[in-house]
## 1
Amino acid sequence: MNIKSAQYNEVLGDRNIKAVIDDVTWFVPISEDNAHYQDILKWVAEGNTIAEAD
Amino acid sequence: MSNARKLADNLPTEGSLSGRNVLINGAMNVAQRATSATGLGGNADSYHTIDRFKLGAEGTTAGRLTMTQDSSGPSGFANSLKLACTTADTSIGSGELLVLSQIIEGQDLQRFAKGTSDAKPFAVSFYVKGNASATYVCELFDGDNSRHVCKTFSVTTDWTRVELSFPADTTGAFDDDNGASLYLQIFLHSGSSFNSGTLPATWASKTNANRAVGGGSFFDSTARTFFITGVQLEAGSQASPFEHTSHTDEFLRCARYYFKNLAPVYTTQYGSNAICTTEFPVPMRNTPALSVVSGTAPTALAGNSYAPHASMYVYHASSTGDAVSNYQADAEL
C-alpha cells in the first residue's frame, strides 16, 4: 500500500486516522487488528509521522 | 461401480457433510472491489479483485500481471481467478516473492484440533490450468505458531483438479479468535531467499528458504497465465467434491471482511452538523476502515463490529444534509 498522508481525526468522541492510501481517503480505526492500521504503523516505522488532529 | 460405492467415494473422510470448506468464495463468484486490476507486481500486496483472495508481494520484481474474475471454469463453475503476465521478470532478485493467498481466522479452524493428540489432516483441493505446463508450491502457514508445510503441484493447459493431503500437526494450536491464523498460499514467483532449501513435507518451524522449493516463476514469460477456481480446505486426509453454496451465502461470508455499499446513504441535520448511521449486512470481523467511494467527502466516518447490529456513522461538520453515494468498509485479514 502507498500511504501519502495520515492525520488523527476526532469527532463525536471517536478518534481514528484519516489517511490517503493508494489515492483513496480512508478513516482507519486505531486497532492493531486492522490491516490498514498495521500498514500505517509500518509507514511510521519507516520514519513518517501521523499529523495531530486539527 | 455401484451407486453406493460412488456415494461412499464422494463422502468426506472427516467431519461434517456440509460446511466443510473453511475457505470463503472458493468458486470465485464474488468480486466487490473490481473484476479486473492491471499493473500488479511488487506493489501488489493487497486485495484487488475477487473477495478474500489476496496477492502478497515482497521485494521489487519487475514482473507485472493483470488479475481478473474470468468467466471460464471447469464443468459446474461459472468463474475463475485469472492471472496474466504482462511484463516478464527473468532476473529474479533473492528477496522477491509473489503469492496468492487466503487468510483464515483461528476461530474457524478449531475443527482441525491442531496442537493436540487428536489433530486432523488438512485436505486442499482446487482446479487449475495455464497457458503451458508449470509447477507451483502450495503452503499452509500457521501464523500463530510460525509453522508450515508445503507441496508442489502441476498445471497443464486443461482444467485439472489438484488434491493435496497435508498431515496433521500435533504441535501448536490455532488461537480461538478473529485474528489471522492459517494462510493458504500459492507461491507463484520467488527468489533464492525462499527456494534454496528443502521443501517441508511435514509440519515444521517456518524457514523462509524452504517455502517455495521446486516452484517455477509465473513471471518467466508474458505468455504465462494461471487460472484457479473451486478452492477448498477441509479436515480429513482425502478431499471431497467442491461444496457449492448459494451466492447470497457466499456474499455474506465475504461481507464480514469487506463490504461495498452501492445504495445512497443520506445524512440529515443534527444541530449544527449533519449525520446518519447505517448498518452493515453482517457483523464485520473487527472495526473496519471506511472510505467514501463517490459523493461528498464527509468530515468523518466511524464504524464498529458489534454483533448483531454492526454499523457506521457519516458525519459532516455542517448543517447541510448530503448523500454519500457509496462507501466501502474493510476489515480484511
Note: The helical segments of chain B are 3-10, 192-195, 247-255.
## 2
Amino acid sequence: MSMNSEKKRLTGATVLLEALEKEGVDVIFGYPGGVLLPLYDALLDSSIRHILPRHEQGGVHAADGYARVTGKVGVCLATSGPGATNLVTGIATAYMDSIPLVVLTGQVVTALLGTDSFQEADITGITTPITKHSYLVKDAREIPRIVKEAFYLAGTGRPGPVLIDLPKDILATEVEPLPADMNLRGYQVPSKGDSGKIVEVAKALSECRRPVIYAGGGVIAAGAGDVLRQLAEKASLPVVTTLMGIGCLPSVHPNLLGMVGMHGTVTANYAVDDCDLLLAVGVRFDDRVTSGLGHKFATKAKIIHIDIDPAEIGKVIRPQISILGDARLVLEELLNTLESVESPQVADWWDRLRAWKNDHPLRYDKDRMTPQMIIECVGELVGENAIIATDVGQHQMWTAQFYPIVKSRNFATSGGLGTMGYGLPAAVGAQIARPDDMVVLFTGDGSFQMCIQELATIAQHNLPIKIMLMNNGVLGMVRQWQKMFYERRFSGVQFQANPDFVKVAEAYGIRGIRVDSLEQVRSAITEAIKHPGPVLLDFTISPEEDVLPMVAPGKPITEMLGR
Amino acid sequence: MSMNAGKKELKGATILLEALEKEGVDLIFGYPGGVLLPLYDALLDSPIRHILPRHEQGGVHAADGYARVTGKVGVCLATSGPGATNLVTGIANAYMDSIPLVVLTGQVVTSLLGTDSFQEADITGITTPITKHSYLVKDAREIPRIVKEAFYLAGTGRPGPVLIDLPKDVLAMEVEPFPAEMKLKGYQVPSRGDSSKIAEVAKALSECHKPVIYAGGGVITAGAGGVLRQLAEKASLPVVTTLMGIGSLPYGHPNLLGMVGLHGAVAANFAVDDCDLLLAVGVRFDDRVTSGLGHLFATKAKIIHIDIDLAEIAKVVRTHIPIVGDARLVLEEVLNVFEGLPVPQVTDWWDQVRAWKNYYPMKYDKDRMTPQMVIESMGELANDDTMVITDVGQHQMWAAQFYPIIKSRNFATSGGLGTMGFGLPAAIGAQIARPDDLVFLVTGDGSFQMCIQELATIAHNKLPIKIVLLNNGVLGMVRQLQKFFYGERYSQTDLIDNPDFVKVAEAYGIRGIRVDSMEQVRSALAEAIAYPGPVLLDFTISPNEDVLPIVPPGKPITEMLGG
Amino acid sequence: MLHTLAALVENHPGVLTRVAGLFARRAYNIDSLSVCQTDDPELSRMTIVVHGDDQVIEQVRNQLNKLVIVHSVTDLTAESVVERELALIRIQVSSETRSEVLQTADIFRGRVVDMGRTNLTVELTGDGEKIDGFIKAIRPYGLLELVRTGKIAILRSET
C-alpha cells in the first residue's frame, strides 16, 4: 500500500482539533449540543482535555480566567443558538479587558443559514461589536488557516477575543485541508518603539521634578512588570496602577503609591494631579481613572503615552510624546537609554508623597469583622503564588485596595465590563490553568449567585478553590451609591430570602463554613487553606460598610470623599 | 399665572415610568446597576411592581413567561454593559418564538457613548439581529413617543422583542416631554385577509378529500383557537400542531392528531405527507417539522398559508393560496364563507387517519417509573387551567407528547431557540402573571442547573411553583443522539457530581421531595400540589429512556424510528 | 440574475447596520449598495444590487420591508429605469501613451479631473456596462486606482 492511500480520513472536526493541538491548546471549556455532535465525537479521540461548565457563561469566563493567569489564549466552545448567545457577556468581558480568547461556536448546516432554523443565531452578527475578529467557516479546507489566524489575532498586538463559527456540515464533512498559511494583510503588530522618541522620553525623565508612572493592564499583557520595576527603581519614579495593572509591581514595593482613580488611594490621585511628568504605559485613561474629565487630568504634566494600540493614543487626552510599541521592548530600550542621562531630582517630590501617604493611608475600623480585615488576613496566611479572583462590587474594590498581590498574573478581575458572576468560573479556569497554586475567590452574595451553578464544576474536578463570600445580604455597591447620593433611598438592592450558602455548598459536596465574628476569622481561613478540597467561607458582613476613599461622580480625582 | 407657566418638567426616569403605566404595565423584572440609579430612585414612587431575579437572564425569561401566558407585553430591565449582555439569550429566545417584550437597558451617559466606558456595551448593535426594533434614547422628551411605539411594535403584527436603551443622563434630565404621537410610517399591521383568496380557500376546503390543518404559534397569538376548532369540527378537518401550537385545540379533541415533526405523532406525520390540502395557519414550516426538506413536504397537497408575516409566505415551500392577515379574522371569514358550501367528502380519509392513530399510538413502558408516566400523572392530578412550563431536552418532548394541555396559553416552552435554562425563570413569570393558577415546571438536571439561581427569586416572592425535575444525571437529548447516530459513543453528556437537588432546594428554603419509585409518584405529586408553597420533586430517571418516535436528521417525516 | 432594489429608509444612525446585518445574516449576495440623501430630511435612499432568482428576491424584499426603518422597497429590475454609476479611474501614462489614453477617455465621454506626470485620473458616468468597458479598455496601460460609487437608478416617467 502506498503512503497516500493510508492517509487518515479527516473530517472538519478532526482537522479543527489537530489545528488546536498545534497551537498548544490542552484544555477547552465546552458545552455540547446538536450541531456539535461531530466535534464531540472527534473529541473522544483527541488529547485535548474538556471541561464541562454548567452554563456556557461559566465556560467562557473560565477560559478568560485561564488566559489571565497564564498569558496563553483561552479556548471555549458552545453549541449554536442559545449556547452561543450565552457566551456574549463573557466575550464582551474579555474584549473590554483585552484578554486573548478563541471562542468556538457550532452553527446550523450551511444550507439552513439565514432560515430561522432550530437553535440558529447570527452569532457573528451579534458579536461584531465585541470581538477583535470573527470567522464563519464555509469551507472545511480553510480550517487550519483560520485557526492559525485566530490564535495569532487573539494573542498578539492588543489581545482580544476571536470567534470561529462552525456549521455542523463543515465539522462532519471529510476534507483534505489546505495549508495553514495566514492571510492577514490588514493586520500589523507594533513591536519596537521609535528610538528617537525614546530618547526624548529619557531626556524628559531626566529633567522632571515630579514624575509618576501610570501603569495598567498593558504592562501585564506585555510581561513588562520587571523592567518597569527596574526603571522605577533606577530613576526613583513613583508608580500608580489601574485595577488591571495590579501586580505589575509587588504591592509592598516602596515605589508603589497604590491604585489610581475612583476608589484609588489619596496619594496616587494627588500625585497624578500634581505631577509634572506622567509616563503612561499600557493604560487607556479610562473613566474610572479620569472621571470622564480628560481635560482635567494631570493638567500640569508632560504626558508620555506608551501603548500597542494606535487607537488608544490621543483618544482621551493628547500626549506630548506618544510611542507605539510593545511595552516591554519600549521600556527595555528606555532603561538602556537612561544609563546615559542623569537621574531626575525628585527628593522633594518624594517627601511630599510620603507625607500624603502618612496623612491619608487606606484604613478601616478594627473593632468588628470587616471585609478589609478578612482580605488582609487571607493575604497574611496565603502564599505569594496564590491567585486572587474577584467578582464585581464593593468586595472587588476592597480586594484591590487591601490584598497584597506580589506578582503579575495573580489577580483576575473584571475591570472594563464589570461583570458580576465572573469570579467563580474565572477561579475555575485559573485553578485548572495552575493546579499547584492556591486560588482564592473574593465575592459577594449578589455576584456569587449569578454563576452559582459552577459549584458543580468545582465539585466534579475537586478544584481546591477557597471561596471567601462577603455576605451582606445586599447589592453593596449600588446600595452605597444610593446611601451617599440618593439620601439612603434604597431601591432594588435588598436580597430577601438569600439561600443558606453553607447548605448550598454542602448540597454540592463542597465544605462550607459560616463565620460571624472577628475571633473566628483567622482560624476559619487557616482551616480552609489546610482543607485539601474546595471550601466556601460565608462571612456575615454589615451592609453599612463603605468603600472609601471615593471620587464622587463627575468630580476630578482630587475630590475624594472619606479621605 | 398663565396655563403655560404651570407646565411641569419631569425627570426622564419619571416620564418613562408614567409612560409604562399608561401602557398598562404593572410589573417589571429588573436588576439594578450604576447607570440605572435615577430610574431605581424614581421607581420608589411608582405603583409598578418590581421583581428582582438573581441574574438578568432570569429577568428576561420571566418577562417572556409572563407574556406567553397572558398575551400581554412582558417588560424587563437591566443595567448597562454586562447587565444588558446578560439579556441577549432571552431576547433571542423571544425573537425566535415571536413573544412580545419591551426590554429596557440602562446605558452610559451620552457624552461617553463609544468611548469604551465602564460597563458600556453597544447593546443596540449587539441585538440588531434579534430584535424586532430598537431605540437609543438621546432626548428625554421623546420618551413617551418611543415607549408608545415600542409597545405597539412589540405587541402587534408578528410580536417580538423591542429594546429601548436609556443613557443615565437622559434618565436624570428634567424636561417637558413631547406628546406620545407615534411615527411608524415603515410599519403596517395586516388584519383582514384578501376576500377573494378567502373564497378560494373555502372552495378548496369544500372540494378536498384529504385535508389537514397545520396550526402553530400564530394561532395562539391571534387567539384563534376557538374559531379553528369550529372550522375543524364543521368541515371534519384533522388538525396537527407544532410545539408552539400546543393548546390551540384541547388535548384529546377528536380532530387533533397530535404534534407534527421530529418527535411528532406518527399519524400526524403520515397525514401531512399524504394530504391533498394543507391549511397552514400561523406556522413557518420550520425545520423541526420539515427536516429542512421543503421540497419533500406535503408534496401531494394544495398548500394554503395564512400568516400575518408576509416574509414567511413562500419562504420554505411553494404556496398555492397565500393569505396575509390576522389568523382569527381570516379564519372567521373562512368559516362564514364555508357555511354556504358543501362539507368535504372525508370519510375515507378519516378511516385512514384513525387507523394510523390506532396502529401507532404514543406509548411507553409501564413497568418502571418513566418520565412519560410522571407527566401523565401530573395531567391527571391538575386542572384545565394549570400551566405547564418546560425547559429544553428530552423532558420537553415528553411534556409536549403526554401532557394534556386543554387551553391556549397554558404551555410555555422555548421552541425556536431551544434555550436550556428558560424553564425556571419562565415559570416565575407565569406564576406572577396568574397567581391563582397552578404552575408546573417540567425540567431536566442539565437545564435546571443553568438558571438555578432563580430558586432565590421563587423563595423571595413565595411562588408556589411545582418543579418536576426529571433527573437522569445526563444531558439526555444529546446523549440520545449519540446513542442512535454515533454508535453509543457518549461524549461529555454525563453530568458528573450533580448536586443533591433536594438539599439545594432546602438551602433555598424550598420544600424538596425525592421520588425513586413508581409507587411514590402520584402521592408525591398530590402532596406537592396540596402544599401552599414552592416544591421541588426530584425524580430519579434512567438515562436510557428515549424520546420516540424520532425522525432521523435529514430524513423526511414519514421515516420515523420507534413509531 | 442581478436585481436592483430601491429602498426608502429612515435617516438616522444604525440604519445602515441594520440593513447590512440583515443581508449578512440571511446570506443574500450583494453586488453593490449605495446610500444617499433624499429631498425629505427624514429619509435616505438605498440602491441595492443583489444576486438571486425570483424567489430569493421576493424574500429579500419581504425581509427588508419587515424592518421598521424601511418605508418602502421597489424592485427596479424589470422596470424602465435610468441607471448610473460614477467612477474615478487613475491610469498610468507615459509620454507615448498619454494621447491614446486621452482619446479613449474621450470616446467614452469621460473627463480628465486630475493630471500628473505619470498618471491621470478620469471621471466617468454611465451605466455599469459602460464603466466596465472603459476599465477593460485602459487596463493594458496600467490601472493604478479605481473608485466606484455603485449603481443608482430612477424610474423613467410614464408620459
Note: The radius of gyration of chain B is 25 Å.
